[in-house]
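Hi support team,

I submitted a single chain yesterday and got back a structure, but I'm not sure I'm reading the token output correctly. Could someone confirm the output below corresponds to the sequence I sent? I've pasted both exactly as they appear in my results page.

Thanks,
R.
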Amino acid sequence: MTRTMMKSKLHRAQVTDANLDYEGSLTIDELLMKAADILPYEQVHVYNVSNGARFETYAIPGPAGKGDICLNGAAARMGAKGDLIIIVTYAQYSDSELAEYEPKVVLLGPGNKPKE
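Hi R., thanks for writing in. Yes, this is the structure output for that exact sequence:
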């Protein structure tokens, strides 16, 4: 049997831009993607703390170290610049893998910088 578990999370990221005319996706600072073990084009679930919206899209890397979190395409209708969001990935784990399972959680502060 496999179970779907949270693999990683960027907690309380602040949206830095929304680009309706882009093809789609969620731009995430490349360093934040690495910190949270999110790969380019990996499916992400987004939970908007500011307005309650919940949606799925995929991640694309943004410039490293700038703190960019940009809603692109249709996702731009799900939030606005300044909104706080939670970005989550999930994965399938076998019961034996769960013995050593631990999700990667990155808590973010001002400027989308990881908290120590």
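A quick pointer for reading it: The mean pLDDT is 97. Let us know if anything else looks off.

Best,
Support desk
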